[in-house]
Amino acid sequence: MEEEARREDHHLDSFLAWAAELGVTDSPCNSMSQQNSNRCLGNSLVVSHFPDAGGRGLGAARDLRKGELVLRVPKAALFTTIRLLGDDPKLSSAVNGHPSLSPTQRLGVCLLHEMGKGRDSWWWPYLKQLPRGYDTLATFSEFEKQALQVDDAVWTAEKAILKAKMEWRQAKLVMEQLQFKPKFRSFGAWTWVCATISSRTMHVSWDEAGTLCPVGDFFNYAAPGEESSGLDGGCHTSESFLEDGLLANGIASDQLTTKGLNSHLDSFVDAGFEDHLAAYCFYARRDYKKGEQVLLAYGTYTNLDLLEHYGFLLAKNLNEKAFIPLEPGILSLTSWPQDSIYLHADGKPSFALLSALRFYVSSPQQRRSILHLVYSGSQLSEDNEINASRLLSKKCHEVLQSLPTTTEEDDLLLSVIERIQDMNCPVEVGKLLCSFRGEISAFLDGHKDLPAAHDKIVEFLLSSRAKSSLGKWKLAVQWRRGYKQIIADCICFCTEVIEGFSHQNEVNIPEP
Ligand SMILES: C[S@@+](CC[C@H](N)C(=O)[O-])C[C@H]1O[C@@H](n2cnc3c(N)ncnc32)[C@H](O)[C@@H]1O
Known about the structure:
Elements: H1 2-21, E1 45-50, E2 55-60, E3 69-74, H2 81-87, H3 89-96, H4 103-116, H5 124-127, H6 142-146, H7 151-177, H8 187-200, E4 201-204, E5 207-212, E6 220-221, H9 258-262, E7 271-274, E8 279-283, E9 295-296, H10 303-309, E10 321-322, H11 328-332, E11 343-344, H12 351-361, H13 367-375, H14 382-402, H15 407-422, H16 426-435, H17 437-445, H18 454-461, H19 464-508
Parallel strand pairs: 6-9
Antiparallel strand pairs: 1-2, 3-8, 4-5, 7-8, 10-11
Pfam families: Rubis-subs-bind
GO biological process, one term: methylation
Keywords: Methyltransferase, S-adenosyl-L-methionine, Transferase
């Protein structure tokens, strides 16, 4: 174990030295300090481990101020399709010979081609830093997918898997033509490459697939808007650094100082490629104390989005939404787009959902005259509000009853999964297996090739294959647990609304 950690540290040091040679730096523009250093970090950022927020990430090497430029990754260090094809005429002619490939497929083929070169690749120090496995939905097995329980989520996973399979079949032709070794043209390799691209690329204007950005891709995620509830309260970030660069917002490089940026913070984006500096630039979204993790807002995502594209979810996600099945009658009466009809993270119905319910429970004779009130979000009457809340509560109860496990069962399951994940002693795993056979049986049934003997099952539960699957199973259970919590909170919200009206009526009853 120690030997492995030492090896990883050594690889990281070599990578940071390699990046420094390419001009990657966390020093201010025009600073000479980096010239004496064989590492690209240390002035503003350090690589650290944040077990509860993304694992490896970048911490503040000193106190940082909101808007400070904290990292520059020059174009020469960006892993893009154009660069890779430009460096390799054979690769270029093969990839360009398949014009139907999407930008992501093209980048995927380039990345697998480079991986296939192993140590001979110029990019090897960087490639060694990429994760070996991912937990994105496209990598979920049938069992892990079904563990999501909610139809919408299972379907999202199914679509992600089907998309990866389709893209792989198309890309396989060019990978065969380039004589990739079987390991690098397998479906497993393709899901790895898709997850790498989906979770690590950054937006550039010249390629829809984006760019891999060495060192820049060490930043972990915090949802946009969180910084305003943190230290400073005033910074509005735009949607995502995947979307827009600072210069796209019209800021010239000579303004790239904290002071210059502050006047532009209303349209603040924490990262983007800047033509003037020919570099990908990263900015502090808020003030940071030395040692704190410096985070980026990759975009505004629900937990299912995060799981699909990045393979993780947030315990507290203000952008979380829960969609509940509603009969077509409710949906067809309004013109709200379907994706605006959901429950917020705190269980309250979205504006569109509440309006749709108010309209649905109103009498057909009334509907024409109240339409403008419905669209403006007004309450229509006490009865209407109570009926809308009753209907929503009923729908939520139906959803919870239709799911195979309760939140309490999910909590127990999560604690069992965590205990197995933490164990490395066969005797302890054996005991846990005896105590929680019921909970674990679905997981074991999901691994069809497993021998029935107790000691073989224990051996399997301690294997890296089981650990990877346990990690995905846990994510699926955490996701459905969060979904059920929102539904339960919505039931409480509806009860409060209904009780609020009866309480008002009691107060208003005139004295006899
Ligand atoms: C761009 S990379 C960030 C660096 C990554 N931790 C690494 O070691 O290379 C994005 C990945 O980091 C992890 N990650 C980022 N932010 C996270 C967070 N807030 N919580 C958990 N995992 C996170 C996810 O695995 C995600 O796919």
